[in-house]
Write a structure and sequence with these properties.
There is one protein chain. By secondary structure, the chain is an alpha+beta fold. It is 39% helix and 22% strand. The chain has eight helices and ten strands. It has a five-stranded mixed sheet with strand order 2-5-6-7-10. Strands 1-4-3 form a three-stranded mixed sheet. The longest helix has 20 residues.
Length: 237
Amino acid sequence: MSISLSRYALDQFIKCPFCFYTQRKLGLKPPAMIPLTLALATDALLKNEFDAVRASGASHPLWKQYGINVAAFQHTELDLWRNNKKGIRVRHESTGVEIFGSVDDVWLNLDTEELHVVDYKSTSKKEAPSLDGKFGAGYKRQMDVYQWLFRQSGFKVGSVGYFLYINGIKQKKFYENGLDGVMHFDTTLIPYESTDSWIEKTISDAVSCINSSAIPNSGEDCDNCRYFVDRTRIVEA
């Protein structure tokens, strides 16, 4: 059986082997998530912004603000790497499975000629965005896998990846000029020192899980499993 695992699948395996197994091996899909349409819109705007810089070869004020000497990386397969159904793909040598993931952007370090993977995040909260909290560990693993994929594809990749956070401001006026609504955002660029030391073992463990006939246990913090168990208790009470 030919197996392809996305970076999301690896993260799912870490968080809940049961959901990973029942979806990937038994075809049981989890409840659908509500599409994050506003986040998709900000992603598209950011890609347009940096693609314009990429085409012109110019610099961007954001890079100057954060003191990084980079350029928007140009490559013929960039659109492929960004495609959610295609992405950047490599064959894992020891298991033979295909690992893939889709990135938002890639910047070239002009001092070291290394690549930095960039991931866009959108939120709206009072405090400054960070990689702490409920989703931070998953975001870090996401970046780890992206950096690993580029290294495995033969690119020279720096240890630092960047999260470009767009934080919606709720305090300003929405209708500033007639009925043309404007939502203001703060921008935070968060560097993350990536590590891929966990990836090889995780891939091997995930493949062993899929090939096993035994259904694994649920993850301790899996919301889907917790809801199912709690609901079953109520119905059976």
